């Protein structure tokens, strides 16, 4: 990144995923390994899901049923949304420290055993 850029944002949409990877344990490991791979210092990790929700109150809509999590990193954050019924992952990484988007693309596709159908890299100014 040059001095006129504030940061980089990567947006990935991954479809046809193996939904067995849509667990807190797997996603937590994903964050750990991804951050090691792109040399990001992890901070707090926050979850939003049906983990402690009674079955009758759990989400049933395809665009709502899944796990959302935010992994704070020293230079900003990584956000993930998994959709169980659609077999999809939506991943955003924003950082003022540069990282290799291609490495993230390949690692994420491999981890979730899916296919990236959309990817965007934006330089923030």
Description:
The chain is of the alpha+beta class. It has one domain: S-adenosylmethionine decarboxylase, CATH 3.60.90. 20% of the residues lie in helices and 38% in strands. The protein is built from two helices and six strands.
What is the gist of this entry?
This protein is 20% helix and 38% strand. It has helices spanning 24-37, 101-111, and strands at 7-15, 42-48, 68-73, 76-83, 88-95, 115-124. Strand 4 and strand 5 form a beta hairpin.
Write the layout of secondary structure elements.
Elements: E1 7-15, H1 24-37, E2 42-48, E3 68-73, E4 76-83, E5 88-95, H2 101-111, E6 115-124
Antiparallel strand pairs: 1-5, 1-6, 2-3, 3-4, 4-5
Brief descriptors of the model:
alpha+beta, 2 helices, 20% helix, 125 residues, six-stranded antiparallel beta sheet, S-adenosylmethionine decarboxylase
The fraction of residues assigned to DSSP E strands is 35-45%
Count of individual helical segments: 2
> What integer value in Å does the Rg equal?
15 Å
Q: Helix/strand-derived class?
A: alpha+beta
């Amino acid at each position: 990144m040059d001095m006129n850029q504030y940061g980089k944002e990567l947006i990935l949409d991954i479809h046809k995923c193996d939904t067995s990877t849509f667990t807190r344990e797997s996603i937590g490991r994903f964050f750990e390994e991804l951050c090691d791979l792109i040399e990001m210092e992890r901070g707090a990790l926050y979850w939003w899901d049906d983990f402690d929700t009674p079955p009758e109150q759990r989400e049933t809509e395809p665009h709502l049923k899944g796990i959302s999590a935010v992994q704070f990193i020293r230079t900003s954050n990584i956000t993930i949304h998994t959709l169980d019924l659609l077999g999809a992952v939506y991943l955003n990484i924003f950082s003022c420290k540069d990282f290799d988007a291609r490495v993230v693309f390949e690692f994420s596709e491999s981890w979730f055993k899916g296919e990236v159908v959309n990817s965007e890299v934006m330089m923030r100014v």
